[in-house]
Structures are given as C-alpha cells and as structure tokens.
TrEMBL record:
It comes from Hyphomicrobium nitrativorans NL23. PANTHER family: FLAVIN REDUCTASE (NADPH). SUPFAM superfamilies: NAD(P)-binding Rossmann-fold domains. This is Epimerase. One of its GO terms (molecular function) is riboflavin reductase (NADPH) activity. Gene3D superfamilies: NAD(P)-binding Rossmann-like Domain. The lineage of its organism: Bacteria, Pseudomonadati, Pseudomonadota, Alphaproteobacteria, Hyphomicrobiales. InterPro entries: NAD(P)-bd_dom, NAD(P)-bd_dom_sf, Polyketide_Oxido-like.
C-alpha cells in the first residue's frame, strides 16, 4: 500500500514508518520536524501543518489510506485533533481516497474510565482531559464522514509490553480496565487493520489488562 501518515515523527508514527517499510509498504510521512526522519526509497518526507487542507490536498492523492496519529505535548486546551481531522477529510474527499485510520486513545467517548486506576484518577484529570475533549470532537467528525474509517483507542502507553492478556474490544464491558500498550503494538495493529480490512466503521479499544 501507499500510506500517508500524519504525525510521522511522533512515538506511534515513527514505529509505524519502520514497520510499514518492513512489510513492504511505501509511506509519505508528514511532519513539522524533518530532522527526526530519514527519507528513503520507501519513505518520502513532506513538511507542513496537518491542519492545512491546501497542503494536504497536494499530498493525499494517489494514496491507499491516511493514518492520523498526531500528538500534543501540552496539557492545555487544544483543537489540533479536530481541526486536522476536518482538513484531512476535506482533502481525502477531494482526492477520492476513502480509507482513514485515526488513533485517539483511552479517554475518548465510552473508553473514558477504562484505563486503570492510576490513569483514571491521576493522568486523565491532571494531564490529558483537555486533549480528550478535542479527541471527542475528532471522533464525532470522523463518524459523520462518508469515509471507510477506523478509530483506534489504545490503552495508556507503556515502554514495555504488558504481561496481561492482549485484548481488542469494540464494545467495552463496564468493568474492563486495559492498563498498557506499547507504541509498537499500536503501529502493528494499525497495519493489521489496513491489510485485512477489519474494523471498518468501528472503534477498537486495544491493550493489555
């Protein structure tokens, strides 16, 4: 496949680039920090803002799918996720590209309260609640689009793979707590979803118990 990855120099994005190339795919990597990426025969780097629809329209055409794996490093209010999603959907519609994968996370929609006690009681209220307010808007925009979308909601990120069972839920049980996932595991799940065509118009919540 030919993939356009937005947020390619971030944690999930960089893992996705490495794994996508290893699986034989070609990637156009959007970033605002080109020094963090290396171009190759399989990776083309494009520098620009993910909220700039004109920029995106120049690069979306000819791709089989777009992957949104943007992140922010501040705790204040943000509109990055919703504004980039609007721009991406506009560019995809203009180019006739239909397959979209967006990475949101635990705290979006009905995944809120399912990330383990420390995440639920400390990390979410003190550090991530503002970004998830915008990720809720992002998910709503995606769900109202006519694209072939998948919204992936990872458990809290961890440096090492968890020892608990790996789980994927599109309907979240009331008592479920998924406490960890690595960025490499998320990247692998993205590629599996693209290659198999699974989870169309679904929101899988993924991670370890």
């Amino acid at each position: 496949m030919r993939l356009l990855v937005l947020g390619a120099s971030g944690g999930v994005g960089s893992c996705l680039l490495e794994q996508a190339v290893a699986r034989g795919h070609c990637v156009t990597a959007q970033t605002r920090k080109p020094d963090k990426l290396t171009s190759s025969a399989a990776v083309s780097i494009v520098v620009g803002s993910p909220t700039d629809e004109a920029f995106l329209r120049r690069h979306v055409a000819g791709h089989d799918a777009v992957v949104l794996c943007l992140g922010v490093d501040r705790i204040g209010r943000t509109t990055l996720f919703s504004e980039s999603t609007k721009a991406v959907i506009g560019a995809m519609n203009a180019a006739g590209v239909r397959r979209l994968i967006a990475v949101t996370g635990v705290g979006a929609g009905d995944s809120k309260g399912h990330g383990g006690w420390f995440y639920n009681a400390v990390i979410y209220p003190l550090f991530t609640r503002n970004r998830y307010a915008d990720k809720d808007r992002q998910e709503d925009i995606i769900e109202r689009s006519n694209l072939d979308w998948t919204i992936i909601r990872p458990a809290p990120f961890a440096a090492k793979a968890g020892t608990g069972a790996w789980q994927v839920h599109t309907d979240i049980p009331d008592a479920l707590q998924l406490t960890s996932v690595t960025r490499a595991e998320v990247a692998s799940f993205i590629l599996d979803s693209l290659e198999t065509g699974r989870f169309l118009r679904q929101k899988p919540f993924i991670g370890h118990v």
